[in-house]
Amino acid sequence: MGIRSFRGGGSSTDITSDLSNVPDVGRILYAAVVVNFISNPVVDLEKAPLKDSTFSTYAESLRSGYDKVSNTELIGRMPRNSVIGRVISDRDGWGGKSEIFYPFFPHISFPVKPGEQIWVIYDTLSRGKSRKGFWLTRIASDNYVDDLNYTQKNRESLYLDAVTSTDSALANQEESFSFTEEEAFVFPSGGGLTISSNDMSGADAYGDIVAYSNTYADQFVGEPVPRFSKRVGDLVLQGSNNTSIVLGMDRVGEADTPPGTEETIGESMEGVTGFGTIDIVAGRGQDAATAAVDNSDLGAVTNTREWDEINKFPSVTDEESNPAEGDPDFENDLSRIYVSMQTNGDENFDLEFTNSTASVVDEAPYVIAKSTEVRLVARDGGSVRMVKEGDEQCEICLMSDGTISIEGGTIYLGEHSSDNTTEPVVLGELLATAFEDFADECTGVIPGILGNFGAPIVDPGLAAAISTLATDVRAALSTMVYTK
């Protein structure tokens, strides 16, 4: 009778844990399960272990407690971004201990989380105690399984027959497996339907890893992250929480039209040059058009660890995959910096200007920043300067002394179009001087205006009012804003 194992199961007594006679297999890469991630050894090794209350620090538990590693000599020496991992290749997960693995790339560190499987490599093929291991990256999985946020690789075998045949072999087991949404998004312990096929010993080894990992508890955030489909020439960096940097080409909207052409993907790209683009994005897939599945939940499902993930197996929920998942969406993606050698930036971002004389610019180098809130900040003592070069140079300068300078051939404040009336800005100093000159003339003339009998015919208060007006205009001048 087959034993269901996709939720864990098994113990070390079922299969021998004596690996002393296992020969070297000549491997180069080994699969390992991440037990913990050491971001900063100074901090992380001093945390209290979540499982072993006998010790006060995680370092002590690594040395001789529940979390003990085989290469204890590296505990005090491991660099930042090291991994505590357990090799599962060649059934080592049933008897071997966890090990400390250094990062293979000192300057690049890829996302890995406790419970995910990674590739590790050793500096020698010998299984001697002196060999040192290095971790490279998470192992890529099948399309129905691979997730930028968190990947449980053992779902591959769970899904295998269901993906390739409607008459799933899973359904033919004595204990049949009904492929419901609740059962599909689980965290299997191994690659088959028997305990002996599990990666590691223990009733729920993967569950124990995430339950007793400080890193998982303190740093991991589970959420749905849309997948991005790169083009052949792209260099892409993606994080686990919906962030990406793409060094590629201008790529607009539906991603079915090469830049600068009306042709569709699959046809010739001959002559399409000069469209190199860097696209920095946080928050793809905010609309059904670019979500994993076209539904109100933006393609998300809730897994058995009770966080939402991308629905990578839409047939379970009677839906279909969205081929435009994760494609650029200039309207709805949350934050973007777009740097392009040539693009139709105004059109692509659907920009409209109240100044009708500011026409849309096509096929030009662009740098565009878009988000809900945008800040450009200079430190105290610095400045912010925006300059348009050329014969008609114009500038907006925020200077270190608090001065704001706006200069240009013509400056419009507010809406402006070629067919509406605009008013020039008054030069305050000239206006105030004109009033003062007028007041001086009036106050000098008014007392001499006499009637036929020698009495003044102008109210003496008029002179005082004119003088007051001149004083008020002078007082009304801004002490902050100047023009010329």
**Low-pLDDT segments, ≥5 res:** 1-20, 165-177, 258-266
Outline type? elongated
Summarize the amount of helix as a percent range. Answer: 10-25%
For the termini, the CA-CA separation is 93 Å
Taken in chain order, the helices and strands follow as EHHEEEEHHHHEEEEEEHEEEEHH
* Beta strand count: 15
Counted by DSSP, the helix tally is 9
Give the mean pLDDT.
Answer: 83
**Main sheet summary:** 5 strands, mixed, barrel
Residue share in β-strands: 15-25%
Which strand order do you get reading across the main beta sheet? 1-2-3-5-4
Structural class: alpha+beta
Question: Please, could you describe this protein's structure?
Answer:
It is a single chain. The chain has 484 residues and is α+β, with helices and mostly antiparallel strands. The protein has 3 domains: 1-220, no CATH class; 235-370, no CATH class; 428-476. Helices cover 16% and strands 18% of the residues. The strands form 4 sheets. Strands 1-2-3-5-4 form a 5-stranded mixed beta barrel. Helix 8 packs antiparallel against helix 9 (460-476). The longest helix has 18 residues, at 428-445. The N and C termini lie far apart (93 Å). Residues 1-20, 165-177 and 258-266 have low confidence and may be disordered.
